[in-house]
């Protein structure tokens, strides 16, 4: 009887150790930082949290940054451009982004060190490597620089105002970026393999929802 209990207990421990840890982000997981301030701010004082959405609009150029750092993860979320005319002052291309693998030592500024999934009309899915982050794309090392773009290799953005799904998979320096279920960019040997995550507000009103992170333990095949 004791032996049977020991086997069952060991099996339960094994299951627990293999469990995939998943996280749904809430307002408490973020802080806000804006261009006109040098201090971290409570998220709801800068952007709107309503009906399961984060709505970023107004004059406060900046970002929402996670309080914690993450490594080897799959991050999924949805975004759409806010088409309400009362928020849309600019007539240029809509521009935003999701940053990740932001080193914990990187200071808050516009914009911090890290890797960005570019969200911009007609170029959504580009890599932006900021503050000398490097990676190998298509067998070639990306030259280090202040802000270096590696273009997406496929289009898959939905029409203006519709919800788009972003999925970012980062595992030990190998990164794949998906847009609406389609692989649009990938790299290996990224020099930043872990860090914080941010949602950027660059002056184009945008909504985010269903922000979900899952820890992963093996490389994508």
How is this structure best described in words?
The chain has 221 residues and is mainly β. It has one helix and 18 strands. The strands form three sheets. Strands 1, 3, 4, 7, 14, 15, 16 and 18 form an eight-stranded antiparallel β-sheet that branches. Strands 2, 5, 6, 8, 9, 10, 13 and 17 form an eight-stranded antiparallel β-sheet that branches. A hairpin with a 2-residue loop joins strand 14 and strand 15 (174-179). The longest helix is centred in the N-terminal third of the chain and has 17 residues, at 2-18.
Explain briefly what this protein structure is:
The chain is mainly beta. The chain has one helix and 18 strands.
Number of DSSP helices? Answer: 1
User: Major sheet, described briefly?
Assistant: 8 strands, antiparallel
**Overall pLDDT confidence:** 90
| CA-based shape | globular
The percent range for helix content is under 10%
- Which stretches are low in confidence, meaning pLDDT under 50 for 5 or more residues running? 4-20
Strand content: 35-45%
* Helix and strand composition category: mainly beta
What radius of gyration results from the CA coordinates? 19 Å
User: How far from one another are the termini?
Assistant: 42 Å
Element pattern in H and E: HEEEEEEEEEEEEEEEEEE
Total count of strands: 18
């Amino acid at each position: 009887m004791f032996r049977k209990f020991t086997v069952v207990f060991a099996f339960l421990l094994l299951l627990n150790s293999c469990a995939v840890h998943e996280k749904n982000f809430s307002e408490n997981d973020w802080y806000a930082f804006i261009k006109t301030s040098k201090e971290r701010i409570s998220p709801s004082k800068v952007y709107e949290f309503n009906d399961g959405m984060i709505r970023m609009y107004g004059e406060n150029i900046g970002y929402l940054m996670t309080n914690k750092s993450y490594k080897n993860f799959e991050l999924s979320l949805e975004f759409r451009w806010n088409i309400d005319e009362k928020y849309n002052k600019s007539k240029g291309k809509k521009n935003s982004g999701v940053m990740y693998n932001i080193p914990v030592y990187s200071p808050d500024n516009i914009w911090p060190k890290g890797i960005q999934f570019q969200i911009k009309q007609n170029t959504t899915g580009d890599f932006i490597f900021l503050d000398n982050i490097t990676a190998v794309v298509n067998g070639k090392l990306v030259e280090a620089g202040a802000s270096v773009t590696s273009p997406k290799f496929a289009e898959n953005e939905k029409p203006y105002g519709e919800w788009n799904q972003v999925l970012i998979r980062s595992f030990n320096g190998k990164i794949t970026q998906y847009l609406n279920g389609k692989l649009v960019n990938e790299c290996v040997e990224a020099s930043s393999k872990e860090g914080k995550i941010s949602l950027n507000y660059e002056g184009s009103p945008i909504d985010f929802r269903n922000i979900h992170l899952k820890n992963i333990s093996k490389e994508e095949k």
